[in-house]
Amino acid sequence: MKGKTKKIIDILITYCLLIVVAFVFLFPCLWLILASFSSTGNLYSIPGFFPESYSFQSFITLFTDTAMYNYPKWLLNTLIIAICSCVFSTILVILTAYVISRFEFKARRPLMKGALVLGMFPSFMSMTIIYILMTQFQLINNLFGLIAIYSCTAPMGYLVQKGFFDTIPTSIYEAARIDGANNVRVFRTITLPLAKPMIVYTALTSFTWPWSDFVLPKILLKNRDNWTVAVGLMSLGETEFARFAAGAVFIAVPIVVLYFLLVKNMVSGLTSGAVKG
Amino acid sequence: MESERGGRKIVNSIGDYFRNIPAKTKSFFQKQWTKVKSFGAGIADFFAQADWKVLLSLLFCGAGNIAYGQYAKGIMFLLLEILFIVFMALLGGEYLVGLFTLGTKESDPWSGVVGDNSVVLMLMGILTVFIIICFLLLYLSSLRSALSARLTKLKGQKPRTFIEDVASLTGRKFPYVALFVPLLGVMVFSVIPIVMMILVAFTNFGGEIDVPTDLVDYVGFDNFATIFGATNIGTTFFKIFGWNIAWAFLSTFINYFLGLGLALLLSKKCVKGSAFWRAFPILAYAIPGFITLIAFKFMFSTMGPINYYLSDAHMHDENIVDFLGLDSTWWARGIGLFVNTWLTVPTTMLLATGILSNIQKDLYEAADIDGASKRKQFFDITLPYVIFATTPTLISQFIGNFNNFGTFYFLRGGIVSEGYFRASDTDLLINWLYNLSISNDYYGIGAAISLLIFIITSAISLLVYVRSGSYKKEDTYR
């Protein structure tokens, strides 16, 4: 009898905690979503957390009133940057991880150590100098510069993918090589199909990184028309709160949907990174 | 008790780490010495085995290859050597000098004289050094290739043809071919900028000195002296450093245990529909961080909803708390911790969830048979396993938090507190670095601070790297 009451109390506490956690995580999101549908735009004129009346006005202004805040242009810029760097980084990262995991060559260990050391430098260090150089060579305000930086620095984060390739048994490769397939063919016909979940994970992370990065575009894009959504939203003050909320909801929704669809890949990617370090 | 044991282990390993420094340094230099010796032996071997045809390669790269019938390869070596010599004669020499002087001709806007651009000179100088290194590698490989052509011929075989060499690019040489593009990218966008920034740390670049109007000079360790000195910059550094360490420990600790707790809570048997409950933290995980941070800034602003309730719908504006304002150090720090927790707990939770699902069920079955209580199973199986598996990420989380730029950039960007040099009292070193080098053009000092951050983070990682020897005992839990 006593054990049963104890159990019920335990369950009660568990669910209370869960409700608190759900509330803490949901509430700010809910607040932002409701604010994006408010009919007044100013933070000050929303009474407390919830607007008095609702409308689609902020979404309409977001896409039509582009004189000061050209959201459609920002969205287009962000899309271009995110898609291009997603494609290039995924190719480079998978290739790097595969080669380092699968081949024994002289420069292998030095390269791995080098990547380890490079990763310890604060990223601002290279960003500052890239900023100085780009101003000297008048390359600022260039979307392709951003794409190049995102894609070219991506291979440094190859460790998670390498951990994945390490788990594929070598016998498969040896069998293929005995059959006379060369390295390029082995990569195409054996590695790629096996590595599909890892490629999805890599593509997702290398898409969301430029999609939600603010530091690099903030430093390198000075021209309002070249801004990405992140830089643009950062420029919105308290009087434009509803516009910010609408813009934020609009770019957060696709990402959130993607994450929920691919959460399994995310978890396996995260954990393989954890165990293999 | 478990954590106490873990704590003692960590303290011991830190002690071991420092005790092992002399031995490690010695073995490091011994290794380098063996490398030098084997290189010397290689040179001796080369001269012992080479004939005049191969020795011709010492002067003209590829000559040996041509003499042994590898025409295409030899001509390529030769062309590259000529290209290098032409480059060095026309530009390289000048650039190398420029790397050391950083320009000698001052520009004069009055008479319209265009002076040297120190930054461009530095970049070109570094590129020249890289080109020289590449050429040396090429030179060595041409010698090696000439010698191997001779040795194959001595054995009575035909040296490899050009077509065979090209074919080896998808076979034996595949790693180098495949890694060429990634390596080049990392070189251009990471290695060269970092090398350059290390050099900038020892110059007076920034502040009063601006390119291309002024010339930059090397000043030795002056920037470091300023940072550790009794100047305004020095006091700011130590204040920020102290807070930064405290922040990194506090936020990592909170995030880790809350995330772990949440994962354990969700994995309890009595929780129905754990996918539903897990959705809320995942929602927070998926929203881009900058949106969350700006949203929280609005939430805590003087005009925001929280102050709306505090001031009773703006009837009592005297009750408004300026949470993130100039004078609210501890409010802002607390809010920063909370917001950062909100942002990072989901990551830890997902990680711990993945790890929990990997524990082998038979461990629990065995424990059940042995009659261990659930409580005992939790403390003797679950917790040690999870802690074991997540420790490597704990370190990367610590470093991530140490260099957490976003939180205070968004919450309190632009605030300069009293007694601080271009920083606010919540700023971390990385924020200060941004303020100094990007917003205010103090490049030299900024570069010196980045080097200090590098030293701190690499010291922490090294500690772990050394400790990771104990991680190799992975079988314990498999």
Please tell me what the overall shape of chain B is: extended
What about the largest sheet of chain A?
none
Task: Note the total helix count of chain B.
Answer: 19
Provide mean pLDDT of chain A, rounded.
86
* Low-confidence residue ranges of chain A: none
Radius of gyration over C-alpha positions of chain A, nearest whole angstrom: 24 Å
> Can you count the helices of chain A?
14
What is the third-level CATH name, the topology of the largest domain in chain B? MetI-like fold
The count of strands of chain A amounts to 0
Q: Describe the biggest sheet of chain B?
A: none
End-to-end C-alpha gap of chain A: 48 Å
What's the structural blueprint in terms of helices and strands?
The complex is a heterodimer of chains A (277) and B (478).
Chain A: H1 2-36, H2 57-64, H3 71-102, H4 108-120, H5 123-136, H6 143-153, H7 159-166, H8 170-178, H9 183-194, H10 196-212, H11 215-220, H12 229-234, H13 241-261, H14 263-276
Chain B: H1 2-19, H2 21-49, H3 52-59, H4 63-67, H5 71-101, H6 118-154, H7 162-167, H8 174-200, H9 222-228, H10 232-266, H11 274-286, H12 289-299, H13 305-310, H14 329-356, H15 361-369, H16 374-402, H17 406-412, H18 429-439, H19 443-467
Helix pairs in contact in B: 3-6, 5-6, 8-19, 9-19, 10-14, 10-16, 11-14, 12-17, 14-16, 14-17, 16-19, 18-19
Structure description:
The complex is a heterodimer of chains A (277) and B (478). Chain A has 14 helices and no strands. By secondary structure, chain A is an all-alpha fold. In chain A, helix 2 packs across helix 13 and helix 7 crosses helix 14. Chain A has two domains: 107 residues, no CATH class; 165 residues, MetI-like fold. Chain B is mostly helical. Chain B has three domains: 36 residues; 171 residues, no CATH class; 250 residues, MetI-like fold (Orthogonal Bundle), CATH 1.10.3720. Chain B is built from 19 helices and no strands. In chain B, helix 14 packs across helix 16. The two termini of chain B are 24 Å apart. In chain B, 34% of the residues are buried. The chains are: A mainly alpha (277), B mainly alpha (478).
